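Progress note, project year one: complex with FE2/S2 (inorganic) cluster.
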Amino acid sequence: MQYEAPATIDAAVGLLSKAQGLARVLAGGTDLLVQLKSGTLEPDLVIDIKRIPEMTKLVAENGGFRIGAAVPCAVLGENAAVRKLWPGVVEAANLIGSTQIQGRATVVGNLCNASPAADSVPAMMAANAIATVAGPNGKREVPVGDIATAPGKTSLAKGEIVTSVFLPSRPAHSGDAYLRFIPRTEMDIAVVGVGVSLTLGDDGVCKAARVALGAVAARALLAEDAAKAIVGTKLDEKALAKLAEAASAACRPIDDKRGTKEFRIKVAGVLARRAAEKALERARGK
Amino acid sequence: MAGTHVKTTINGDSVEYVCEADETLLDVLRNRLALTGAKEGCGTGDCGACSVTVDGRLVCSCLVLGVEAEGRNVATIEGLAQGEHLHPLQRKFLEHAALQCGICTPGFLVAAKALLEKNPDPSEHEIRFWLAGNLCRCTGYDKIVRAVQDAAAEMRGGRHAA
Ligand SMILES: Cc1cc2nc3c(=O)[nH]c(=O)nc-3n(C[C@H](O)[C@H](O)[C@H](O)COP(=O)(O)OP(=O)(O)OC[C@H]3O[C@@H](n4cnc5c(N)ncnc54)[C@H](O)[C@@H]3O)c2cc1C
Ligand code: FES
Ligand code: FES
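Model obtained:
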């Protein structure tokens, strides 16, 4: 295995494009090193992106925030401004592993590892976050929900790297939240994860909403019908019940040791409702 | 493969070593530098026995490559005591009997030190949450939490007096 730590995005893309055998990007390594050590992955080349200055930055941009691909989740959690604008995304990112894991793990690594249970992904999808991808043919912007295609698989072409994720600005009276179900209180993989983001009008009526579900299909999904169920309402009992029903209906889960299909479908509805209530509280500024 | 030459700082000292690209920082510390304080409990980021800080950030050294340490500042358990002088956390762990077999102890101490640097007066909840990535099969954690609280109190007191 060869290790490279290029100083620019161009150099990283060049190395990746020219790589003969299996090449992998190394961000925090909290997935990659586990895969290396278990022998499930034997790359010929590992490209560490942590020496690329623009990838290590978390910066305000156009009323939103650009999270460099090498920014660890702990840094996100320490940033009060990001916490204030996108509390749901930050709470999802901060659920990843322990303090030690937080010091290394990145949301882009979480995204590119393409686990259907990745915690930050539904929250970023609900936030309508956009990934910037650099490759041999230049840059392109991709909604985060289009990066993972199936467990362990992404839509990235050879030579492509995600350089950052952009969390957009948002109107007043907006809130978001992420909740997951795990059998323990912390340090576990989501059985179901739900991200909800919503915006209220001055009259308290929901003007826009996005709901995303994790661990209930081969990749995180956007539950559009669940979002529609609350838009145009004040999230009254009836609207919340409809949201829960639509979230459950969107699931296409598998049975595994963490939970049965039936359980996941039911829990997705319950969590969607609770996440919406939490997002609502935040939108109301409580 | 010839290996990669790495220059880094460990516990304040300049250190150079040659390691393979796929060797972890934990293996480098233990096998090449004879710094055997960090332990390998799991090798997969779950137990925290291998905790060190890199540029001040608490990490699992089993999930860091040795080559990544180039130009960084690494702190291990070996840097905690000043000569014969134990760090307050080490003294309090002894006083409170916060260890039995001791395998988890270096990791807990490094992690607790990182906590107290960030937050000199953590609540019990904050201590338990921060240390959730450090597993102990022996103590039941209570004594560890008490030791950290007591050390924190002493260190705060010390600062006021100084
Ligand atoms: C103890 C432990 C607990 C964990 N708990 C959780 C949890 O609760 N929830 C959760 O979701 N995950 C969890 N994880 C998994 C992991 O920590 C996360 O998925 C993390 O976000 C991965 O980020 P990373 O920067 O470490 O990725 P890396 O390991 O560096 O990379 C992951 C994958 O993405 C690719 N990649 C990384 N960056 C890029 C990029 N910029 N462009 C293209 N490809 C890229 C890599 O090549 C690799 O295939 C846990 C892991 C451990 C070891
Ligand atoms: S040995 Fe590193 S976390 Fe267990
Ligand atoms: S003292 Fe034995 S594992 Fe903690």
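Chain A touches chain B at residues 1-3, 5, 26, 28-30, 33-34, 36-38, 46, 48, 50, 72, 74, 97-101, 103-104, 186-187 (CB under 8 Å).
Residues 261-283 of chain A form the longest helix (23 residues).
No further modelling is planned for this target in the current period.
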